[in-house]
Amino acid sequence: MKILIDNGHGLNTTGKRSPDGKFLEATYNREIAKRIVAELQNKGYDAELLVPEEEDISLNERVRRVNAACSASSSCPAPTGHPNVILVSIHVNAAGNGSKWMNATGWSCYTSKGQTQSDKLAECLYQAAIINFPGKRIRTDYSDNDSDWEENFYLLRKTLCVAVLSENFFMDSHSDLEYLQSRAGKQAIIDTHVEGIIEYLNSIK
2-203 is classed in which CATH architecture? Predict the structure, then answer.
């Protein structure tokens, strides 16, 4: 199974930072994504970064890279998702436009609309999040009888494989930002993704 970890945005992406300008989402996403890949590789899994570049890579190119990995594997049984490739896109949330501090907090995960195999990966990540983020808000949407949020995000909608996008707390919340930058917070985010991915892979064997 090929595991692709996507680090959202690039150093040249406008916005995507804390209101004081000190926290850059692209830099943080890359640190977390690299550490997730390293831990998965150390455990013997075939994991790699989707975007090793520092600059922003277009969504079209990101989708092309994912779907090329799908094509390099066996044929794709869409819409349930490619059985030999999964994609996890790492992001940090924001409640406002970056101009002021906000009060929203919490961790969440997104899939494309409708019931797909991606929902199962998201559920595994949610279960890991509950364990690894004690006392933190886990943001859920049970309107379709599962935990994840559903949106028509281009990366999730256009890729041929099982794909989810995690929003790892809020960069415009003082409390979340402190947690995001702490050693314990970073490790909890990494553990959530590594453990959730492994649980999903074990569940489909």
Answer: 3-Layer(aba) Sandwich (3.40)
